[in-house]
Design a protein that fits this description.
By secondary structure, the protein is of the alpha/beta class. 36% of the residues lie in helices and 15% in strands.
Length: 354
């Protein structure tokens, strides 16, 4: 048998090249004071993933607007940039849209909001840590100091899907002056429909674990495969950690139903509702008025009835005398990242250019 002396040519690739990007992908690391010493023991050091468009020059004079992307529940920053056959992820979308000149050149920053419970909702919590402060102060501060951004309100927008869509709405209402626009794709809202249907199943699941939240979480983490009921239970615990923590002791949560009987605890659920965008919008006229774009969309077959929530939010924004871009489409809650094709150019189109 004849063997050639020629060896295959080795070609090194960056991860951005593997994704087919024409721009560049940067993975930085931030140490956040807002997350340090949180009750769950989650890391305060987090990845910050930054996409810079073709032509970006760190030594140049041009500055760019920035879209801040918040992932959904059970997601993390690395999951957003993972490549999947037949699908286009967020960085691939913005790269394609810029390359095809369907939107102005902009940066995309992916914020990591994962917790031991599966997600932070991007709110400040004595249980999880101060994720809203981390996103609006620490992440933005890092990006503005290290990249050629338009470092002001008019140069920033925030968007996300599901819990990320909720987070986008929460941050523009809670921190006016940080972002000039938001987009919420299938964002958590109208909690009476979205969450209460899961409460009986969660109560039954916790009963099997003698109502010991810590024991349930530890067993969940050890399993190689979890049931749908276990995932839903962890999700509700994540919401409780964000909306109704009892103290800064790990797993010390108030649930919106009685653990033993399953009866709804109205006073606790009211704490959840105080975060619901449907309830908040009428009281945030000033914060909403300063925004250049208010964007909501949702699939009409959404399993959590978030399309109803989006409809109500849009109507309440209009009742304030403000414009809102509200769209519905024929799909459910899963794999709707293709909607970035619409929201990203819309957001970038209202931001400042330099």
């Amino acid at each position: 048998m004849h063997w050639s002396n020629q060896l295959p040519h080795l070609m090194k690739m960056t991860y951005g090249q593997l994704l087919g990007l024409h721009g560049e992908l940067h993975i930085d690391r931030i140490e956040s004071d807002a997350l340090r010493d949180n009750a769950l023991g989650d890391p305060s050091a987090r990845p910050v993933i930054v996409y810079t468009p073709p032509g970006y020059d760190a030594e140049g004079s041009r500055r760019y607007p920035v879209l801040y992307l918040l992932h959904g529940y059970t997601g993390d920053a690395l999951g957003i940039v993972s490549g999947r056959p037949w699908e286009t992820n967020a960085v691939q979308w913005i790269d394609r849209l810029i390359r095809e000149r369907r939107m102005q050149p902009a940066m995309l920053v992916i914020v990591d909001g994962f917790t031991r419970f599966g997600g932070s909702q991007y709110v400040n919590s004595t249980q999880n840590g101060d994720y809203a402060t981390y996103a609006t102060r620490d992440v933005i501060g890092l990006v503005d100091s290290q990249y050629r951004t338009i470092a002001r309100e008019g140069g920033r927008a925030v968007l996300g899907k599901s819990s990320g869509g909720f987070g986008s709405m929460h941050l523009v209402l809670e921190y006016p002056g940080v972002f000039a626009a938001f987009a919420s794709h299938s964002g958590d809202s109208y909690f009476q429909y979205a969450h209460t249907r899961a409460f009986p199943d969660v109560q039954r699941t916790l009963e099997k674990h003698n109502f010991d939240i810590a024991a349930f979480v530890e067993l969940f983490e050890k399993k190689h495969k979890r049931s749908q009921s276990e995932y839903v239970t962890m999700e509700m615990l994540g919401y409780a950690a964000a909306y109704s923590p009892r103290s800064n002791k790990a797993f010390d949560l108030d649930l919106p139903f009685d653990l033993h009987t399953g009866e709804l605890r109205g006073e606790v659920f009211q704490r959840w509702l105080s975060f619901d965008p449907v309830e908040r919008v009428p009281h945030h006229d000033e914060e909403l008025r300063r925004l250049r774009l208010r964007y909501l969309d949702c699939g009409r077959r959404d399993e959590y009835a978030l399309d109803i929530g989006a409809r109500i939010i849009a109507e309440r924004i209009r009742e304030l005398g403000l414009e809102v871009r509200h769209e519905e489409f024929d799909d459910d809650h899963r794999n709707v990242g293709y909607r970035y094709e619409i929201s990203m150019p819309a957001l970038a189109g209202v931001l400042d250019e330099e």
